[in-house]
Design goal:
With 199 residues, the protein is mainly alpha-helical. It contains 13 helices and no strands.
């Protein structure tokens, strides 16, 4: 009985005496400083994939990192070249255009959504010219028409328009490419149907 009363409260509750308390001033002192937290968040996210400064700032805000601290950390990472919105924008444009066949219009929308400044976006979008865009659009038209072979022409046209429209291609370009590819197949094409995508 006497032994029990002589033990510290932490020992009586089954927790080792050396373990830090769960609350109180000592527990607060154990918290990492906001700048260390911010650096760890940014490093972890950049290790996963390149990101824009705006995306990283949003991530820090969601973790309640004070704005001034976030700004200092992001400035430091930018100064040493670990954050580079211009390079990030170029990589995104190249990969999305090559892998997904996105048009410049769709790429511009995605860059804005990632927080890329309009001037930086405009420079990155120069990497895709009219010829690149037409080649990508033609490839998409050919693939969509191949995948719908056997269906009615009107249905094929409509589905092709939908696929390219979602990637931001202008209807005039799509109509011309659809007409050309269907003519190459020897299919009967209704010019009005190919122009409006309704078939």
């Amino acid at each position: 009985m006497g032994e029990l009363t002589g033990r510290p409260a932490a020992r009586r509750r089954g927790r080792p005496v050396s373990e830090p308390p769960e609350d109180g001033p000592t527990a607060q002192d154990a918290e990492p400083d906001p700048e260390s937290v911010a650096r760890a968040i940014v490093l972890r996210r950049l290790t996963g994939a390149p990101q824009s400064r705006a995306q990283l700032a949003d991530a820090l805000a969601r973790r309640d990192v004070p704005e001034g601290v976030a700004s200092r950390v992001l400035d430091r990472f930018t100064a040493v070249g670990l954050i580079d919105d211009q390079e990030y924008a170029r990589i995104l444009v190249r990969s999305r255009h090559t892998e997904r066949g996105l048009s410049r219009r769709a790429l511009g929308v995605e860059l804005r959504r990632k927080g890329i400044d309009d001037e930086i976006a405009a420079v990155a979008l120069e990497d895709v010219d009219d010829a690149d865009e037409e080649r990508a659009a033609r490839d998409l038209v050919q693939r969509r028409l191949r995948s719908t072979a056997g269906l009615e022409t009107a249905v094929r046209i409509r589905r092709t328009y939908g696929a390219l429209g979602r990637r931001g291609y202008a209807s005039g370009l799509v109509a011309r490419l659809v007409r050309e590819e269907l003519a190459r197949e020897g299919a009967d094409v209704d010019p009005e149907g190919a122009d409006d995508g309704r078939g």
